[in-house]
Design goal:
With 83 residues, this protein is of the alpha+beta class. The strands form two sheets. Strands 1-3-2 form a three-stranded mixed sheet, with no helix packed on it. The protein has a two-stranded antiparallel ribbon with strand order 4-5. It contains two helices and five strands. The chain has a single domain, classed as 2-Layer Sandwich (Conserved Hypothetical Protein Mth637, Chain: A), CATH 3.30.1200. It is globular and about 30 Å long.
Length: 83
Amino acid sequence: MRVTPRAGRDEAGRFENGVLAIKLRATPVDGAANASLIEFLARELGVAKTCVTILRGQRSRQKLIEIEGLEYDQVIARLGQQS
């Protein structure tokens, strides 16, 4: 996943080569962008925030995310994207 902070609005972009682009309004200060990412994904995917975990990349734009209870194909379908 590639996250772009300080965007005009929160939105999911395209999947390219297995990487999802996400734009967030939050700034990358004191973990605000990470918290915003977790809230955004939970809301869009219809899962609890506790089901969304940043496994790697807490201080990077490139992140590895785990969504508990959903498979890769389900995530793509729920975000309305195509791989």
